[in-house]
């Protein structure tokens, strides 16, 4: 492995010419941050779906109430 100039945590593999991050602690932190971000995205998606469902249910209730009011007259 050859060090990449100007980057203490990066090395170049002489066989594949790939650049490799040799700082496993920072890599693990990155993976953890990415995982947390994915979980937050999933939570937002669930909340958006729940909100959409609630809006639909409220609209259905409003329609039913309007029908009741019309039928009472």
Short description:
The protein is α+β, with helices and mostly antiparallel strands. Helices cover 67% and strands 16% of the residues.
Show the helix and strand layout.
Layout: E1 2-4, E2 7-12, E3 19-21, H1 24-72
Antiparallel strand pairs: 1-2, 2-3
Structure explained in plain terms:
- There is one protein chain.
- The chain is an alpha+beta fold and 73 residues long.
- It has one helix at residues 24-72, and strands at residues 2-4, 7-12, 19-21.
- The chain has one domain (2-72).
- Helices cover 67% and strands 16% of the residues.
- A 3-stranded antiparallel β-sheet has the order 1-2-3, with no helix packed on it.
- A hairpin with a 6-residue loop joins strand 2 and strand 3.
- The longest helix has 49 residues, at 24-72.
- It is rod-shaped and about 85 Å long.
- 0% of the residues are buried.
- The model has no long low-confidence stretch (mean pLDDT 95).
Name its key features:
73 residues; alpha+beta; 67% helix; rod-shaped
Number of H/I helices? 1
Distance between the termini: 86 Å
Major sheet, described briefly?
A: 3 strands, antiparallel
Strand pairing plus helix content: what structural class? alpha+beta
State the domain count.
1
Q: Helical percent range?
A: 55-70%
Mean pLDDT: 95
Number of strands: 3
Instruction: Work out the strand percent.
Output: 15-25%
Give the radius of gyration: 28 Å
Order of helices and strands: EEEH
Unreliable stretches: none
Strands in their spatial order, largest beta sheet? 1-2-3
Which term fits the overall shape? rod-shaped
């Amino acid at each position: 492995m050859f060090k990449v100039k100007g980057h203490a945590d990066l090395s170049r593999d002489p066989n594949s010419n790939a650049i490799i991050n040799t700082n496993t602690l920072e890599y693990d932190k990155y993976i953890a941050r990415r995982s947390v971000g994915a979980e937050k995205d999933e939570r937002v998606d669930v909340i958006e779906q729940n909100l959409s469902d609630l809006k639909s249910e409220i609209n259905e209730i409003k329609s039913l109430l309007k029908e009741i009011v019309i039928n009472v007259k």
